[in-house]
Amino acid sequence: MPTLRNKVALVTGAARGIGAETSRALARKGVKLILIDLDAEPLKALAAELGDDVALAVAADVCDLPAMQKAVDSGVAKFGGIDLVLANAGIASYGSVMQVDPATFKRVVDVNILGVFHTVRAALPSVIERKGYILIVSSLAAFAPAPGLAAYCASKAGVEHFANVLRLEVAHRGVAVGSAHMSWIDTPLVQDAKTDLTAFNQLLAVLPGPVGKTSSVGPCVDAFVDALAKRKRRVYVPRWVALAGWLKAVVTSRVGDRNTLPHVPRILPLMDEEVAKLGRSTSARNVALDDVAVDPK
User: Fold this and answer.
1) Cα–Cα nearest to 154, from 100, 101, 112
2) What residues contact 43, with CB distance under 8 A and at least 6 apart?
């Protein structure tokens, strides 16, 4: 049975949600952790909880390659190297392509795609040296489009294929690469969208079968820890998400569109109206963190 004890893992988006809970689970397995997030206070609190001998917290923006390289270098200096990478940092925007704030759309793409590239680029030399494993967090959204979430869907499809390319490039170096695909998980990202937008809740309500259901964080954490231990190529949470991946051509066909199209004329204008009233195209939490990224203290 593969063991994680004494491995060193770099986790982005580690301050909250899946990143934080996976970090706690990895610490219980004897893993040393390099924790990276832009949200400094909860990140520092998590590192303090886990202990200085277990975790190093580095507040950094994944969109800033020099900052990510500095974070990686600090982690390597403390723990000796990096065996595992969980590229988990991600955000979402709200609103139609016609109405979404262009700067917010760009920020989502920057965090979700460039942030993954910067994470991998900075950590890769050490991961190659240790013949390690990289798990890139994509989404069900890579397979199944959702109106009003174009930046999120496009970016998650992008990082899935980034993982596919990276896997080919580093296999001969002894490095394995996986991609993780989750449906809606009860994380701050989903919680904020539900709180901000009745339109988002209505969208979930009309999605077919289990696609609109929200799952708890626990099974996702278990799946991530298992993937990190076994160097899995694909991770699906819940497991039915695998079917959406296998049937992506059907999901994005005219047949697949039939379930969603009748609801778009009602839900999308409502989303745009609610976004306009909010005065922002993303969660209040992300707006605050964007201010930190623009003007770091």
Assistant:
1) 112
2) 14, 15, 35, 36, 37, 57, 59
| Residue 267 lies in domain | 8-294
CA-nearest of 297, 295, 293 to 110 is 293
Q: Does residue 3 form part of some domain?
A: no
- Cα(4)–Cα(194) distance, integer angstroms: 36
Bond into 102 cis (ω within 30):
no
Residue 257 belongs to a domain with what CATH number?
A: 3.40.50.720
Q: Which two tokens stand for residue 99?
A: 């109405």
Count of domains for the chain = 1
Question: pLDDT-based confidence at 288, cuts 50/70/90?
Answer: confident
- 181 domain-assigned: yes
Which of 133, 113, 138 is closest to 220 using CA atoms? Answer: 138
State pTM to two decimals.
Answer: 0.95
pLDDT band at 1 (very low <50, low <70, confident <90, very high): low
One-letter amino acid at 204 equals: L
Report the residue count for the chain.
297
Q: Are 51 and 78 in contact (CB under 8 A)?
A: no
Q: Is 133 a catalytic residue?
A: no
